[in-house]
Every structure is written in structure tokens, then in C-alpha cells.
Amino acid sequence: MPSSAKRGLASLLVGSSMPARTHPELRSRPAEQSPTPAIGVIGKYQLLSTAHLSMNTGLLLDSWCNGHAHEAPTTVARNAHGWFLSTRSMSADCERALPGDLMAAILFARRRGIDLLHFDCDGPTLPQLLVHDW
């Protein structure tokens, strides 16, 4: 066996004559591996049907995502079948600028500690919110 094979693939890739080194957790036996670090909650989101929004609200959200973000009173991002929308607190003027159906969904989410709404055409409809025909 060539000496390079004994040193391992890593030493070949870096062209070093030093023995290959691996991360300590990769060398450890499974029982010795450190546990996966606890990941705290970053935030909560709620998936909702786009049917909870009127067609006019959908068009408005699209306009905010298509070059008119500076006009949006809140953060909105488009996805393939709907939108992501922040539920963070905003000024009273910004809240008044939002359509009623959108504000109702935001208030619904805030009362439940939801930070982000995901409106999707295949999302669930909830009895607490109005449903609109598209």
C-alpha cells in the first residue's frame, strides 16, 4: 500500500506529508460523542390558506413583493404559492394601512405568540378567520 494511502484522503487533498486529522467527534465512539446542543425556539409560524385573504389583498401583497416594498407597512416575502408575513408590532398608522382581512390574520397570530404567517394556497382554513372565494 502506498504511504499516501496510509495517511488518508485528507492528506492527499492538501498535499501534506502530515498524518490526516479528523474532528474529535468523528474519531469518538458513539457513546462518547457530545450530545446535540439544545436549539432554542427561534420563533413560531402559522400556515394559513390564502383563502383567508381577499383577491385584492393578494394583489396588494404581490405588489409589495414586486418592487414596491418601500410602500409596505410590514415585511412581506413571496413564495411559490403565497406569502410570508411578519406579525411584529407596528405603528397604528401602519396597522390602519393594512386591509382588514390581513390585519385579522395578524391579530389572530399575535394572540397565539406567532411571529410569522405563511399564507399558502394549500394551507388550512381556520374557523376563526373569514374565508374568501378566489
The description of the largest β-sheet is:
4 strands, mixed
Rg: 25 Å
Report the helical percentage. Answer: 25-40%
How much β-strand is present in the residues? 5-15%
Shape assignment? globular
Number of domains: 2
On the 0 to 100 scale, the average pLDDT is: 80
Strand order of the largest sheet: 1-4-3-2
Count of DSSP E strands?
4
Termini separation? 70 Å
The ordered H/E elements are: HHHEHEEHHE
Structural class: alpha+beta
Report what the structure shows:
By secondary structure, this protein is of the alpha+beta class. Helix content is 33%, strand content 14%. It has a 4-stranded mixed sheet with strand order 1-4-3-2, with helices on one face. The model is unreliable at 4-20 and 23-30 (pLDDT under 50).
Q: What's the gist of this structure?
A:
Helix content is 33%, strand content 14%. With 134 residues, it is of the alpha+beta class.
Task: Using brief descriptors, characterize the structure shown.
single chain, four-stranded mixed beta sheet, 4 strands, alpha+beta, 2 domains, globular, about 130 residues, about 15% strand
Could you give the topology of this structure?
Elements: H1 3-7, H2 9-14, H3 24-27, E1 45-49, H4 55-65, E2 76-79, E3 82-86, H5 92-97, H6 100-111, E4 116-120
Parallel strand pairs: 1-4
Antiparallel strand pairs: 2-3, 3-4
